[in-house]
Design a protein that fits this description.
The chain is an alpha/beta fold and 167 residues long. 29% of the residues lie in helices and 23% in strands. Strands 1, 2, 3, 4, 5, 6, 7 and 8 form an 8-stranded mixed sheet that branches. It is globular. 46% of the residues are buried.
C-alpha cells in the first residue's frame, strides 16, 4: 500500500482505532462527487455514502448526514429528526469554512469519522439495501469500504428516512 496523504492517514488511523479492518485507498481519479466516486471505484452511485454537513441555527452544532449517492436529502425531514433529538431547531447548509472548522476536512472529502468536533450523525436508510458501501476518507481522492451496519457502529449514527421522495 502506498503512503497516504495527511488527511487520509488521519482517517486511516481513526478507522484502525475503531477496529475497522478495511484500508483507506487513495485513487488517481477524483471522488469529490458521488458519480465520480462510483466511476472511480466501479460501483453504483447508490453505494456511495456521501457526507453532507449541516449546522443547527439555535445551537450552532454540526450535523452529519450520510446519504446514498443517488438521493437528495429532505432537509425538512432532517430538521424534524434533529428537533426530536435536541429540541426545536432549524437546520442550515454549512458553508465551506464551517465544514473545515468543525470536521477538519474540506468539502469533497469529508469522512463519516474523525471529525474535530464530533457531530450528530444521521444515516440514510436507503444505504441498507447494499451489502457494501464506500465513504470518503479525508481527501477528494480517498475512500474506504464498509457495510451500512459498520457505518452505524463507527459513527454512533441514527438510521433515518431522510431521502427526498418525489410524488
Amino acid at each position: 500500500m502506498s503512503e497516504l496523504s495527511g488527511s487520509a492517514r488521519r482517517v486511516q488511523d481513526e478507522l484502525t482505532r475503531l477496529g475497522h479492518d478495511k484500508p483507506v485507498v487513495e485513487l488517481s481519479q477524483s471522488t469529490r462527487t458521488a458519480a465520480a466516486a462510483a466511476a472511480a471505484i466501479g460501483c453504483t452511485v447508490g453505494q456511495i455514502a456521501k457526507s453532507l454537513v449541516f449546522r443547527t441555527a439555535r445551537t450552532d452544532s454540526s450535523l452529519l448526514v450520510v446519504a446514498s449517492g443517488v438521493n437528495r436529502v429532505d432537509e425538512r425531514a432532517v430538521a424534524q429528526i434533529v428537533s426530536i433529538r435536541i429540541g426545536p431547531e432549524e437546520v442550515l447548509r454549512a458553508d465551506a469554512d464551517f465544514v473545515r472548522e468543525r470536521t477538519g476536512f474540506a468539502i469533497g472529502g469529508v469522512p463519516p469519522v474523525g471529525h474535530d468536533d464530533p457531530p450528530l450523525v444521521l444515516i440514510d436508510t436507503d444505504l441498507f439495501q447494499f451489502p457494501i458501501i464506500w465513504a470518503a476518507a479525508g481527501t477528494p481522492r480517498a475512500v474506504f469500504e464498509l457495510t451500512p451496519w459498520q457505518l452505524v457502529n463507527l459513527t454512533g449514527g441514527t438510521m433515518a428516512d431522510i431521502a427526498k421522495h418525489t410524488s
